[in-house]
Design brief:
alpha/beta; three-stranded antiparallel β-sheet; four-stranded parallel β-sheet; about 220 residues; about 40% helix
């Protein structure tokens, strides 16, 4: 988030790497420009994308949800270095076909076969092809959250993903500065959290109409 300061410049509200949201501080634009220019440009690029979530029902009303299985990895998923294996592409097709049919599904691959990457590729496909842009909810065990963060950063950097965790003070800051604008409109595409947070703040999660929900280790 940004705000006008007393000198008619701009302050940035900064969440520091490896610190909690409760440790966030307001910093002058000159600090961001001189020391954190890359993060500042990434923030400005996200704002410029204008990819805030829109009404799911309104967004897909005029789109015919037909699906033909992907024969190869779409150019907007991954990169020349980040390639889906054949069975992962099969998994992506499996998920997309179910979504187009209006069905929920269980992805039952064994450990180590890339369910995280397949799931993020599924969300990335929907983000690119359809206009609703979320909001998507991803609920994972706390022990795997860092791996999910890294996978979102690598495989879907265009999706504005916010990690919702930490103390009550940190979560209040996330809700105030990371999730909606001054008009109350949602500004994130995907929310990554864990089971405990959903239980503690269930009213918050229930108040949002989610376009997609991904649950890792759903037996929880």
């Amino acid at each position: 988030s940004t705000r006008k300061n007393e000198g008619h410049g701009v302050d940035y509200y900064v969440k520091w790497l490896n610190l909690t949201y409760a440790d966030s501080t307001w910093e002058d634009e000159s600090v961001m420009e001189n020391y954190f220019s890359e993060a500042r440009e990434e923030y400005k690029a996200r704002k410029k994308q204008n990819c805030n979530p829109r009404s799911y029902q309104e967004s897909i009303k005029y789109f015919k949800k037909t699906f033909k299985s992907l024969k190869e990895q779409p150019s907007f998923i991954g990169s020349e270095e980040l390639r889906l294996r054949d069975y992962q592409l099969d998994g992506l097709n499996f998920m997309l076909k179910a979504w187009h049919n209006g069905d929920s599904l269980i992805l039952g691959d064994e450990m180590g076969l890339g369910k995280t990457i397949q799931s993020i590729s599924f969300l990335r496909y929907l983000f690119n092809v359809y206009p609703f842009k979320g909001p998507m909810l991803v609920v994972v065990p706390l022990s795997t959250m860092a791996a999910w963060q890294k996978a979102f950063q690598d495989w879907a950097p265009e999706i504005n993903t916010v990690t919702y965790s930490g103390s009550a003070a940190s979560r209040e800051i996330i809700r105030k500065f990371e999730l909606e604008n001054e008009d109350g409109e949602l500004t994130f595409n995907a929310l990554l959290t864990n089971y405990e947070m959903v239980c503690k703040d269930k009213t918050f999660f229930q108040d949002i109409v989610w376009s997609n929900i991904v649950i890792d280790e759903a037996h929880r």
